[in-house]
Design a protein that fits this description.
With 122 residues, this protein is an alpha/beta fold. It has three helices and four strands; from the N terminus they run H-H-E-E-H-E-E. It starts with a helix and ends with a strand.
Length: 122
């Protein structure tokens, strides 16, 4: 019985608290490059390109406004692939024809559709 008591005490001692197991080591830090960290270049969106038809119409309108014999305020200009249309009114047939001639001389104009109406006093 004595041996039984010693075995029992030895077994209890083995089951008693002991030091906790060691914690696992922290994962290694990722390697760092020497020097400053390079950033990816910023990608900026392209600014929209101007509509070539609107640009042509704008240039024709400027040419009309630059002529003292044409009332450009009464004329609207549209353009489509080099074909320019003039809309609105002119005070005389001479002013109507002059507006068409001015428009035809602007770089990029292939043809002019002169839809100006002659209205006396316009």
């Amino acid at each position: 019985m004595k041996y039984l008591a010693i075995a029992l005490i030895a077994g209890l001692a083995a089951c008693s608290e002991s030091t906790p197991p060691p914690k696992p080591a922290a994962p290694p830090a990722p390697p760092q490059a020497a020097g400053p960290i390079a950033k990816a270049p910023e990608v900026k969106p392209e600014s929209p390109k101007p509509d070539p038809n609107k640009e042509l119409a704008r240039r024709v309108k400027q040419a009309l406004e630059g002529d003292g014999k044409v009332q450009a305020a009464a004329i609207d200009v549209t353009a489509q692939e080099g074909r320019v249309s003039l809309w609105g009114t002119a005070a005389s047939a001479a002013e109507r024809n002059r507006a068409g001639q001015i428009a035809s001389k602007v770089e990029g104009v292939a043809s002019v559709d002169n839809q100006l109406k002659v209205v006396k006093g316009s």
